[in-house]
Amino acid sequence: MxxxxxxxxxxxxxxxxxxxxxxxxxxxxSRTAIVGxxxxxxxxxLRLIAGFEVPDAGSITLGGEIMSNADAHVAAYRxxxxxxxxxxxxxxxxxVLDNIGFGMDADRDAKQARAAELMEMVGLDGAMLARxxxxxxxxxxxxxxLARALARRPRLxxxxxxxxxxxxxxxxxxxKAVADVLSAAGVTTILVTHDQAxxxxxxxxxxxxxxxxxxxxxxxxxxxxxxxxxxxATFLGEAVVLPAVVGDGIADSPIGRLEVADVTYRGRAQIMxxxxxFTVSRIEYAPDIGVSAVVSDVVFCxxxxxxxxxxxxxGIAEGEISFRLDIPGRELLASGDRVxxxxxxxxxLLADA
Length: 353
Known about the structure:
Transp-assoc_OB_typ2; alpha+beta; 5-stranded antiparallel β-sheet; iron; iron transport; P-loop_NTPase; 6-stranded mixed β-sheet
């Protein structure tokens, strides 16, 4: 069942269209991540859903009830939406117990019981209820902020860059814990982030936003492997984009003949290959025919090598085509090495070729 529906939602500030007529549906219990560069409209969209901003056009429906349209606007406090911000926004003068219980319409004993239940749910010791926020780590503060947002049993949870202030190891652990809690509680969630890996790992629906519009909406796997255009492909991670001539499901490219999923397209195009599809091996000798490749630069990063691969061969000008790859450190490649390149799986034909 669809819980949240956005229909042609738009919001401008002067001549700047922060949100330019977007449509979205979020199913009950689902997790949607909205990812995009700074200034693309992610936070404005979240504020529109929360009720902090009024859309200039379009409608927002939650649980079958209209929250905003041309004729009505339900105030934020009446929407029963939980929000967790980047810094948690805990009240520094209140204990953890009082932070979680803030806004709950219940007596002290009921708040204590609910807070203890939520602390267990978010994986924190109930003994921390007496502490103040400055006595907690960053990850603990974010879990308390989540507990506070869950205290009133919201029907929708909005997460605005909630993990960005945490270090990498803590960030990953906290993100997984939060995702597990929200799934167990069955709460529909919208996450806004600029971190592509975070969005891919967290969501079951991914939205790529650019200049106030949705560039692509789909499952994380589909959006990553089948981006609609080059900008989306490169935003979601490293992508090698090469020219090719395509026909009958085969792309003739600078690195050889490769299979493409689209068997109907014929003509010149651009193909996208993700770095994990590559295998690169050093070769002691390669005949001076066809296509060869050289490691033009390499940086040792422990388990991996950050290598720039430059293609050479018939029809390819020196240095014309190069790209970077993360290669397993076991290959022990050095700058100047000649390498063979293999591609696993089909390559993706970009729509904006």
